[in-house]
Amino acid sequence: MATFKYNALTSAGRLMKGTIEAGSRDEADELLKQMQLVVNSIDKAAPEKPKTAIGRNEFMLFNQQLASITKAGIPLEKGLRELAKDVDSRSMRKLVDAIADELESGVSIEDAFEKRQKRFPPLYGRILKAGVETGRLNEMLTSLNRHLEMATQTRRIIFEALSYPAVILTLAAVILTGLFLFVIPQFGPILSEISGGRLPGLTRLFLNLAENVVPFWIVVGLFFAVITILFMMLSASTPGRRFKELLFLNVPVVGRVYHSSVLCRMAEAMAIMVASGSDMPAALRLSSGATGSESLILESETLAGHIEQGDNILEAGQSCRLIPRLFLYSVQLGTQRNELQDNLYSLGEMYAEQARCGQSRLQAVLLPAMIIGVGCFIAMTILAMFLPMIGIITSLSAA
After folding, report:
1. 3-state SS assignment for residue 44
2. Is the pTM of this model over 0.85?
């Protein structure tokens, strides 16, 4: 199938321009005639440049502005039009206008964003659909922005904690590579002669490393390249993203921060769904979709199915790994006491606080850990070179 640009007149004599997909120019012409259009011209469209995702900061600003517009009670289509006028980026302006065009022509909000899933974060259309259906779009967008800010803050903490040690590690790697290439090999024969060929194991290890320093860095580079390609391949499919998420959840401290963050997002979204009158299965499905967590979506879908079959939420959640028993128990208790919305907001605050504590722990642990690691490697290198001499001095002292 190819894309053709056309210029045509409607039955009312109105000029219309657009694109249409067809197997050939004649087929495109026939399709337009079936639409009761008088074709003036039709040409094959040039291939579009690949679309790239909008930046995180640009998306957060767009989401915040959209939340403000919906809070003011402006219809979504008109709000997007007004929002496009204030966007500095030309490509972003065209993107927002195109979405507004589709919404005005009757396309659902989920479909409009689904067509542009490479530009927006995963499941953004589903989040907007949930907000529109429940009449709580502003609260959903505000909650999403809070979740994104928390994720951005976690990334910033990790970056800040790693950047200083990373600079030290890079400088140390350059200096040590020079030592291993030009200096340490000169010590090999001398140390062997001094110790009579009986070198300590640590010294032999570092001398062997000096002989293979170039292959070592090639292997390290290939290792990181393979890891990067593997993660890109995993991100291309739902099972792959789910597997990558499970790996991420098992990373100490970082995984706990992420887990608390998505549970906070789910609890807040559920509270909004419940307040709008959604039943429990629908609230579970929509709120888990709003988190963007593939694993949480799968668990919530299973949980919702069991509830629809008549099980209570505690029984249905026996096999849940991501949704804690405390979460399920609080939901059940809130349902029984008619306090579900308050309980969910309390859960959201609790998990948000856990995420903030985890971020503080990251900040306190990562920097010292990296510096200690670099220092230990440098100390081991120095020790390896001096061990034979220390052994000789010790034996002479004993004699």
Report:
1. strand
2. no
